[in-house]
Write a structure and sequence with these properties.
mainly alpha, 240 residues
Length: 240
């Protein structure tokens, strides 16, 4: 079964390093050349995005479970601040940062919804290709919520839960901070199609990884991730 885990890890890394960057670039090029008001095409893109996310995630979860492991090995368990091995002041610092991060994203979400100036200013910072992905109508917003939830769950299970588990299992001599770097690098690589804007997910990947180490659970990280993706829910409100 260890051989299966090696093959699975190779499959996941290939997915992160090749398939996701290429598909992201391809999809962005397609969307950037279309009218954002073409509802069926955008909804179709949302559906395909979720399919691409859930398919490898289900494969990974199923393979791990068939290998005799449990969901807790993928980080799907209650948080526990006592298992990280970090100094108390580091734990307190990152718990505080997590709370600030959550509050900031809630503030951004509601600010974009009610403040036209904030929407206009934020929209100018987003390239056309990424702007074409954003929801405009009510139906698209409902679809975007599902995309955000999907991204939060699947990306955290794969990038944090699975990579931390698999690398530690197959290469036990690798320190956890090296695994953090590997996970964050692959997370950034998966978003490299965003160009200079890929710096934001690269930094987010580092913080998500540290949050996972501190909380010893991806559950709070999933919530932070999906909330971050949902922030742009009302960004295109003025376009209606």
């Amino acid at each position: 079964m260890i051989a299966v885990q090696y093959l699975l890890l190779f499959f996941v890394i290939l997915l992160f390093a090749v398939a996701y960057p290429l598909s992201g670039y391809y999809q962005q090029k397609i969307l950037s050349g279309r009218n954002s008001g073409q509802l069926p095409r955008k909804i179709h893109w949302y559906k395909m995005t979720m399919l691409w996310a859930w398919t490898p995630t289900i494969i990974v979860i199923t393979t791990v479970l068939l290998g005799g492991f449990r969901l807790r090995h993928l980080g799907l368990k209650p948080l526990n601040l006592s298992t990280s091995g970090l100094d108390n002041w580091i734990i307190i610092l990152f718990v505080a940062l997590y709370i600030v991060y959550i509050c900031y994203n809630f503030y951004s979400l509601f600010s974009l919804k009610i403040n036209p100036e904030t929407r206009s200013r934020s929209l100018k910072q987003i390239p056309a290709g990424m702007r074409a992905m954003l929801p405009v109508t009510g139906l698209e917003r409902r679809g975007w919520i599902l995309v955000s939830v999907t991204a939060g769950i699947t990306e955290e299970v794969l990038y944090r839960g699975y990579l931390f588990f698999a690398i530690a299992l197959l290469f036990p001599s690798i320190p956890i901070w090296v695994i953090l770097i590997i996970s964050s690098f692959l997370f950034a690589l998966g978003h490299i199609y965003q160009g200079k804007h890929s710096l934001k997910p690269a930094l987010a990947g580092i913080f998500y990884g540290v949050f996972y180490i501190v909380f010893d659970s991806i559950v709070p990280v999933i919530f932070a991730h999906l909330l971050q993706d949902a922030v742009v829910l009302w960004l295109m409100k003025d376009s209606e």
